[in-house]
Amino acid sequence: MKGLELLSSYLARVVSLAVAMALLVIVGLDVVAEVIDELGDMRNDYQLRQVMEYVVLTLPSQVYDYLPFSALIGCLVGLGILAGNSEIVVMRAAGISLWRIVAMVVKPILWFVLAAMLIGEFVTPYLDQLADGRRQLQRSGMESGADNGGVWSVEGNEYIHINAVFPGGVLFGVTRYQFDEQRQLQAASFSSRASFDRARRHWVEENVAITRFSPGQTVADKLVTRIWQSELTPVLLQQNVLAPENLSIQSLWGYTQFLRQQQRDSGAYQLALWAKLLQPLTVIGLVVLAIAFVFGPLRESTMGLRIFVGVVTGIGFRILQDMLEPSSLVFGFPPVVAVSLPIVLCVVIGARLLRRAA
Q1: What is the pLDDT of residue 144?
Q2: Which of 45, 247, 331, 350 is geometrically suited to a Cys-Cys bond with 289, CB 3.0 to 4.6 A?
Q3: How far is CA 172 from CA 136, 140, 195, 212, in A?
Q4: What is the pTM of this model?
């Protein structure tokens, strides 16, 4: 038993290191591409330093997104090294079954999956919103106007534009347009900052400039602070600011229920919810496929070929996901089917290859 524990620890160390290196390389390449892409959007206070801060804040999100791909490449590389050194052959000759080796490889991957789930649930929604809010504020400054990007919302006869939304209920650049029943503009206001009072369930606007329109005259006024009663909450704003795939499972679940109650389409949010719920199975499915490749078709292959096959397989898996997920929205079949079908395909192919190798 002690020998098996040592072997399991050795396998875990090799595979974990390979997955970590693959994740580092893949995320590193994506960071370079992200920096180059953001350089074209520099304006106002959004310069090189701010670009680098934005990229750093979105790093956890990149780690979460690329974990399945990195697990696939890492297992191919790690097990490929062991196979190239004939260590896999020695393990099999010592009477260790193929399925036990599979279990030893999957075990350390589960720690990566757990870390990714915690990051996706508690870290990335906050940091992504912070990064987006800072970028919007730095690019638009404190000026009002729709050309600065930001978020639009409608409440009754009032149209609201927000330049930047920060975590915890802090808004910058809030413009409110109030219309009457005939759609005539009655008043427009701009506040530099607004914060949410959780105890009283309302917003407090700061440095408010108000312009009221009436027949034949325009009246301007300024207030230090103003109470703003609104149905908007920090949670609802986060759900509107972030893409569905960047929200937490809890937020996705709550928002899909809200959209259903409002009889609105929730397909995109259901897809994101199932993708997050099934991501552990996605990682395990790709790992099983990688193990099957090493013990099957790629047993005698070079490291370069293994990496190439891993990249092609990962791209193919992603393309299949990108085809099925929008198709579920167009053709109306359940989102869980669109998300789970590629996973099932990986597990079935991997299990068949492993059965042959055994």
Answers
A1: 55
A2: 350
A3: 9, 10, 9, 22
A4: 0.90
